[in-house]
Records
---
Amino acid sequence: MKKEKAVVVFSGGQDSTTCLFWAMKEFAEVEAVTFDYNQRHKTEIDCAKEITKELGINHHILDMSLLNQLAPNALTRSEIEVKDGEEGGLPSTFVPGRNLLFMSFAGVLASQVNAKHIITGVCETDFSGYPDCRDVFIKSLNVTINLSMDQNFVIHTPLMWLNKAETWKLADELGAFEFVREKTLTCYNGIIADGCGVCPACKLRKNGLDDFLRGAV
């Protein structure tokens, strides 16, 4: 893989930044793609720009504003409260079709830049119940994208079976622990680094960090 090219689906958050460092280690050339769907915080786009600039990564930003029109939720509407799902329901932050669209357009971009590998930070271990983060979905989509474009893309999910503590451990093994901790945006309230500390994303990130720091992984 070291001689080949990859595209990383990149949000500027903990998971996708860890995946970016993973890709930089595994592939000869890496590009990143960020999707602007009028998300709750434009800071996410700015954060992704800053990280890719610092790392010298060619960065594509694609307009996906149609998704904002189709899928009103807590990530696309500031008036909708961020909250976990109740009684098996999905969290208010679930954006229907997001990963389906993102991965499909990442495939189109990959075909244009002659990359055969697509990396995404989706995870089935520590996640909020999003159906489009499941391994079975990614495997199915990989087949569909390849059939649709007559390509042989490989979708990589380095974090699929890692919990948040193990994701911090991977960042540390990649020499990126401090970078990920200080420069990424995971917080639903748009606060970089350790975030607000109270939203679901911050709590998950902090619990994983605490477990990693006390040697639980």
---
Amino acid sequence: MSSTSNAWILTYILLSLPVHFTISAAVHPIPINGTCHDTCGTMPVKYPFGSGFGCGHPDFSRYVRCNSDTLEFSTGTGIYNISEIDYTTGSLIITDPFMSTCSSMQNSGSFSLDRASPFSLTGENIFVLLGCSTNSPLFDPAEDLCAMGSRSRVCRGLYSCKGVTGIGLPQNAPPSTCCVYESPIQLAGYTLDLPKLQCSSYTSVYSFGGSEGDPVKWKFGISLQYNGSYYSNLCKDCESSGGLCGFAGFDQSFACICRSGKNTSTSCFGQGYTWSGTRESKIQTKLSFGGILLLWLVLSI
């Protein structure tokens, strides 16, 4: 073989190698910041919720997050702990640390639920306003803001608690300063403005615990329903491959996040070596040694 032919073969090899390296590098998924987890402390975290930024669905990420092993729910009026999630019914329970209960009553802040959020109040909630001024608009007969039929039963139950002294009322005080404020079913967007309503505190009872006459057994918290229509076949495929559904990029497009902490736009199947870097290294090594071997053969002719 002539030296001219050798030169042409050598030129072809040198031009081909970078192309192989470029193709090999292109199979790398795009990494995201942090790693998604399927638990937050002892609480299971499933789609559409996520354990951190880039995890779950972007419409939920601004409201739900994992902070120091505690799953939290944020609104314009505060940050609340999520105590329960029922993924089969699409509901969750949040607790306000300043909300009154039978064992402890204190001055509370207001509560609001963003109308644009994918959450709504359920019909299980019974909001109770405590220590209200007799001049409160709640007691305006023309407004009919209080559920008068159940006020006596619920209010007397709460006012029988020893904790009522925390808002400056004696135990078993008359229920004239208490209002049961039941929320409509599936109410999206809600504001409970205590200063405007001239009340000291509020609580929410979502279950009587099988004993309506014993407020110690009542379950206190705010029951919310979330929109479960975000779950898609794309997410199901991702989860079946061992990944967690999330989002990435400026457009917050779907991303399947694998246990390596990197993502793809589909699923984690068939990507194991690439994500760990092992397969990438093997491809490059074979190409490098193959090129050197071929170059040695050419120069030896």
---
Amino acid sequence: MKNRLVYIVFLFLFQNCASQATPNLIDDEYKAVTTEVFNYYLYFPDDYEVRNDEDFPLLLFLHGGGESGDSLVTIKKNGPPKLIAQGKKFPFLILAPQNPHKKKWWNTEALIQLLDTIVDNNRVDRKRIYLTGLSRGGGAAWELAVQYPKKFAALAVVCGMAPVPYASWIDKDLPIWVFHGEEDESIPVSESENMVARLKSMGYNVLFTKYPGIGHNSWERAYNTDELYDWFVKQRKAE
């Protein structure tokens, strides 16, 4: 009886090991389809209808995490949408979508689909599409510059997370301006410092503005910098 029990245990272990040694791999395919719904503001310059034979530049603005959700009016709290609400005039179109997910990153693939739709249906100069974002939107701006390196004529990032490995994937002809508060406790200034240092070491054209004594809300000063918008309109992709 004892020998029979030992034999059964041995047989079980042998069969189990044999089954593990020859796994059964299955090839298959799954097509994932996702849908994203963006609410957005689209600003037109005052002379857009008057100069109806011209194409205009467009600025894509990506807000921070605090403005995510389903209340579009919240994106008027910061950046160009805030300035527009206060009466500021811009010489280009501004597309300001809202990230519908409070706790998720921007869906950058869906953003490009939205951008392309706006460009296709309005008089937009495709060589003068600009990109900017703050905080979580700044991180998404870096990501878009990596994933779509030929799409944008200029990039401005305000206190965004900046994975240094992105540096080698960004178009070397892309003008970049980075802003960050030195006392930022949410996204440390080192995020921008390290990225800018890597880009400059590789020969990129990068401007870097640091604000002493300023925390995470460096966007208040950055987007009130008139030189930023003058800088944007000077940028154009090469023929």
